[in-house]
Queue: 4 jobs
Job 1
Amino acid sequence: MRSQQTRTVCWSPTWSAGFENIGLEHVVLAPRSADSVLLACDESGVPFRLTYLLRWDAAGCIRTADFHSRHGLQEKRLLLRSDGSGHWTTGDGHALAGLKGCIDIDIWPTPLTNSLPIWRSQLRIGERREFRMAWIAAPDLTVEAKQQAYTRLRDRLYLFESLDDSGFQATLDVDEDDIVLDYPGLFRRLSVS
């Protein structure tokens, strides 16, 4: 994050057909951490809650990621630790070999984690870079490695590409701190303070 001020950022999820704009993500973003609560409905209309706390080092590499989800009556927790060099463990120290080489994380569903590789990489306009991401899917809190790419198109505009078979792409407008504004078809930014 460019700013060293603590900020609050909120988005409304718009991805769930019939439940657009029902829900809210509220993130308290500090210079080296993010503390979030997200309330939303899944594609079937079942409400869920996700809380997460991320901490990163001075180089912008995730060091801890703690998750708690509640989906209906099911409750799940996930604790991840990283050495900042692509080696991950669970909270109790078990190695996660499948995440080897992942520096950044991408959490579904939040646009916040799209900012992590943008902050860390400092791409020049026209530059494209591929990333191996630890991809966490809520509310089940599954985790797997996924390839993604970011291209800086203009000063505050990036092309995001999922490099799996989905072919998913999105053009992301960011603010002066490289935090995603509206994410077409998925999130609408509500406020910043």
Job 2
Amino acid sequence: MKPIQTLLFLVAVGFLSLAMAYITPKDGFDFGNDVKLKFASLEEDSIPEETIEKIEDLEAFLEEVEIEIDSTAIKDSIRLAKLERRKRLSKIQWKDNDRSVLAGLFTALEETKNTKKTKVRIMHFGDSQIEGDRITSVIRNQIQKAYGGTGAGLVPPVEAVPNAAIKQTNSENWNRFTLFGRVDTNVHHKRYGPLCSFGMFTYPTDTNFTETQEAWVQFEKSKMTYSLTKRFTQVKLFYGHNSQAFITKVLIDDSTEVDSKIVPSTEGYASLDWHFDSTPEKLKFEFLAKKSPEFYAFSFEGDYGVTVDNIGLRGSSGTLFKRLDSEQLSGFMKSQPIELIIMQYGGNTVPYITSEEKAEKYGRWFKSQITYLKKLNPNAAFIIIGPSDMSTKVDGKYTTYPYLESVRDALQKAAFESGAGYWDIYEVMGGKNSMISWVEAEKPMAGKDYVHFNSKGTRKISELFMKAFWQEKEIWEQSLKTSKTDTTNVQ
């Protein structure tokens, strides 16, 4: 084909597209079965970028909520009202402003700090926004620095995504099964444990158990995490349903065997514990069995203090907990000093919500998950974190998903009706279309998918959450002082 022919073809396609823009209805051609053909209209293409208000200095905008408001220095009453609203929404919100549910958490934290004997466990569930120890790492580090504690908390025997908290390698014969994402239909039970996943080094449908199988998992200190996370003095292994005995060996620093034992068969849920005087550089667990037990999680902890678990469930909307084996999950949770459960969800649901009714239905569904977990953990406080801002392309321009705020409202309602707190990460970011500014800032804080934070943004949003958390602590401390003053005045 000659160059002039190519040019004429491109010009013809351009004129045809322009003509289609004129004659196509505003809502496009509907072919049924959710199939629609739509062309951007000339009017839509002429919408100036200024219609989406961008945050000029993102870092200054985010830091603005961290400083005290000097109303005399802000002459613009509208700007002052917006700043006051942002500061209010940056806090953890509670129905009727009732924060009493956190009293048990802060009392337990003070006890472990003062006695150096007790433990507190915080579980952070979420979707891909937190996987790999994103966000959780900052929460863990700040709380462990304040109250004591070391270690990465719960980690799966077989990881899907590298975890910044601890480096992990496995023998190649491990199988990973999850209750989220693609569920293996050969698993005919719901015993997925606290991480909603488990690992085996034989396959569930295997029938030949005459040959002994060997498998191993090795952990090393991560170079990508905080010093307190790297340290641990205790390791727990949660396992179960091994119809046959198995052998476990523990080696440190490649070759030194520090433990070897025969673990008897059990049809229930069990755990093994190991203690170390100091943290090994490398820690290897070897297993020998004809049929693999179900391995649910390792837990890396200190002898006292706070343990914070990062439980990222990629693709999950947070509505799978009621499908877990209730007896097994209850057994784990009753055996642990769980004082706080953080649930960070909504992002995987937002793209599929097409009406207010669907958003409300999701909220009711999510509320049932909170209620279920609260029954298993009656002493634990709950904080819900909804979806951050997410952008989708509409007529060639990025904009917030149309029903994101409806999902946010539904999750906030679910939290309030369940006695949980709600942290509005969407408003903290800047609200509608703020993700665009996070992605396109001079120093970007989110990825080009316009959904996930990058490392800089993850750190910033984590610090903003912890600021809200420490504000809750200050309110609790003030309530104690007020209570003591009232008691003194009565006497």
Job 3
Amino acid sequence: MAKIIATKNSSKKEVIAKKAAALFRNKSFAATSMRELAENIGVEASSLYNHIGSKNELLQTICFKVANDFTIHLNEVEKNTNSSIIKLEELIRFHINMMLSHSDEVFVANHEWKQLSEPFLSNFMNQRKSYENRWVEIIKDGIRKKELKNLNPHITVLTILSAVRSVEFWQRHKKSIESNDLESNIIDHLLNGLIK
């Protein structure tokens, strides 16, 4: 059997989590076994336990890594600009790039988080709610500054995040739509609308 090999940018645990995310996406968290994960990586199941404690720990690692990446980026965006429009564009771009470059992990964080055990489930939900509320505050600030239309901030955030999460369906059309076109078009639609 092979060994789990760390890469220049990833620890062995991160390599395992990446493989797990792909399996969780394809089969679901509940339907994936540690034995399948070990076979997918090419190691004995017992070798996995040298690096991780359980399948639940893998789900926690994946979900919180994604949530933390989004939160860290939001912190940077809020710190670096006052314009609500630029903040929104930066945030949308980051979401699209995460969906394209870490699609399995983001999919798992978006769809399998309900399988987290407590207290991780509550912590994840609180982090997610806090993140979305900070988006709402950006929208409200843009309305106050007259940079944005006076639309319901909660609906606006829901619309933007739902639209960006739909990038996972883009995988079916990869050959006909370039990723740069996808990003530019989504940002244009979300920030400028369709009407001339």
Job 4
Amino acid sequence: MKKSFTCLIFFMFTASICFAGSIEIKGSTTVLPIAQMVAESFMKEFPEINISISGGGSGNGIKALIDGTTDIADASRFITIKEVKRALNNNRYPVPFAVAYDCIIPVVNPLNPVKNLSIQELKDIYTGKIRNWKQVGGWDKRIAVISRDTSSGTYEVWEKKILHGARVYPGAQLQASNGAVAQAVASNKYAIGYIGLGYLNKELKQLKVNNILGTPASALDGSYPISRPLYMFTSGWPKGDVAKFINYVLNPYKGQKLVKKAGYIPLY
């Protein structure tokens, strides 16, 4: 009897391990702080579900969703028509869930005297037409241009809303994450970069765009010109643990509170 009871306990223990849930999340480094903060809270409430999270950019996250190597793709821009076609060819149907709003913030070193740039000035800096801070009211020093790489959703929104389809000039330094951009600008007083609102810190100076400061209020009322929603994509309508996590992210009293804590703008 004792042996049977021991076997039963062992079976229950191993079964609980075998049937423990897991969720894989890949993609945008902009959405990464939200995903990490929500996942930490979610796993405390549901310890039987393990969540693995990695960055790499929106494009890589959506590619992983198409390839079937992630359950959720974080993206700081909407999926493209080409990506949808590739997904359908792979028998996958991407479903978008807006989880937050964000501003893309141009940033400089705190010592930089420049406070505002127009969209045209930003475009001219990033395409190489303006190369000296003196041309926009700053020092007589060459501008060190920091940009995201092309796999970034933040870059794609910047390309659309600031560059209007033009390409970043070859002299720009390309970085793979918001954190890398923030670090590069903080350590170089002649640099300029752009980041998601959640990466703004005391080591960076936020610039106005067209004399408008990027804030939750200016993003929600549409007055700030570089605002955007942030997404989590699933393959098909989410079920099981993935559905539970998405619902948790969208819950006004749980995930959405953590969106605000992460420095972004909640939906509700």
